[in-house]
Amino acid sequence: MIRKRISPTLSFEVFPPNSKVGTKKLIHTLDAFKELSPSFISVTCNNSTRNMENTTVHLSGYIKQELGIPSVAHLPATYLTKGRVLTILKQLDKLGVNHLLALRGDEQPTMEPCNDFKYASDLITFIKEQAPHFYISGACYPEIHPDSKSKVEDIHYLKKKTEAGCNNLISQLFFDNKIFYQFQENCALANINRPILAGIMPIVNRSQALRLFKTSGTYLPKKFLRILDRYEHHPEALRDAGLAYAVDQIVELVTQNVDGIHLYTMNNSATANYIYQTTSSLFKTQEELLSI
Ligand code: FAD
Question: Pick from 148, 143, 110, 151: which is nearest to 213 by CA?
């Protein structure tokens, strides 16, 4: 469950590495995150994984039990049966993890979907029936989901998703705050009145940005492209400028009363630490500021 003390919230996202060495490194990163006391840490899940227990479930449990930080397990359901979902919910319950990001997940060309959950809203309805004590987040897309034919359709199904029982929404990353504000407005017009956490990814190298642009088609504003061009051969400056860009986005969003910032950390503790150190007072309540 999200800690109630702070609004806006500041949360982190990590992904389970593929190797034992990577997992060991992530544990060190998570231990370092404890000092930053994020509102929660979410753990992604590969949609094609058959091994969720040893990855997402295990790491979510570690965050909750060993670090005492609320954790969120991502649950993409295209390739899960209802029975498997029930088993996973029981495992999470045992570990004290009661917050999920309920997802459809991306289709894998080589795998047959189970057809128990066609859309995230089917999964949300099922969890609400079977385990109503879970707090459920849903994904949302300020630049619309690539499968949606139009913004109208995208917002229409997002509303259905919240009506199915989604408690809040976590957004896809974006680099232009204006797109996020427009999206918030569209949600308000459609009466989607759940908190929306803004997804921010600090870009710390050029290949990361270009890969993102290629795979997700995320809009990169001119100001951002100029940074990539100017510091193409100067990785240190590109990293500094990328971090400053993310901080700039966060400051503006918080000033505009965003419900929360969800930081895509890419398992990089230095990045999360920098953002935290630079912005932490923005996430304190008025009472906390007065008592400093
Ligand atoms: P849905 O909400 O089901 O929407 C998918 C598409 O179907 C949209 O175009 C929607 O408009 C449409 N739609 C919805 N309902 C209906 C309906 N009833 N009839 C017709 N059309 C409908 N993926 C992973 O595999 N693992 C992760 O850990 C992960 N984490 C993520 C975290 C965040 C914050 C975000 C934003 C995305 C994440 N994803 C992850 C990616 C996500 O799984 C994909 O974007 C996926 O393609 C859509 O998932 P969804 O839950 O948003 O789908």
Answer: 143
Structure tokens at 141: 């897309």
Which residue, by CA, sits nearest to atom 13 of ligand 1? 157
Q: Could you read off the pLDDT of 10-23 as tens digits, one per residue?
A: 999 999 999 999 99
pLDDT (tens digit, 9 = 90+) per residue, 120-159?
A: 999 999 999 999 999 999 999 999 999 999 999 999 999 9
What's the CA gap between 106 and 233, in Å, rounded?
34
pTM of the model: 0.96
Report the residue among 50, 59, 103, 169 best suited for mutation to probe ligand 1: largest number of ligand atoms under 8 A from its CB.
Answer: 103
Please report, rounded to a whole number, the percentage of residues in the chain having pLDDT higher than 70. 95
Residue 130 pairs with which residues in a beta bridge? none
One-letter amino acid for residue 101 of the chain: L
Q: Which residues line ligand 1 (CB under 6 A)?
A: 44-45, 47, 74, 76, 101, 103-106, 119-121, 139, 145, 147-148, 153-154, 157, 160-161, 170, 172, 199
State how far the alpha carbon of 78 is from the alpha carbons of 85, 129, 136, 148, in Å: 11, 19, 17, 17
Distance CA 221, CA 92 (A): 40
Q: What is the CATH number of domain 2-289?
A: 3.20.20.220
Dihedral in degrees, nearest 10, Cα atoms 54, 59, 64, 68: 140
| b/e 135-167 (16+ beta carbons within 10 angstroms → b) | ebbbbbbbbbeeeeeeeeebbeebebbbebbbb
Query: Helix, strand or coil for residue 9?
Result: strand
What is the per-residue pLDDT across 23-77, written as a single tens digit (0 to 9) for each? 999 999 999 999 999 999 999 999 877 788 889 999 999 999 999 999 999 999 9
Query: Using CA atoms, how far apart are residues 26 and 24, in angstroms rounded to an integer?
Result: 5
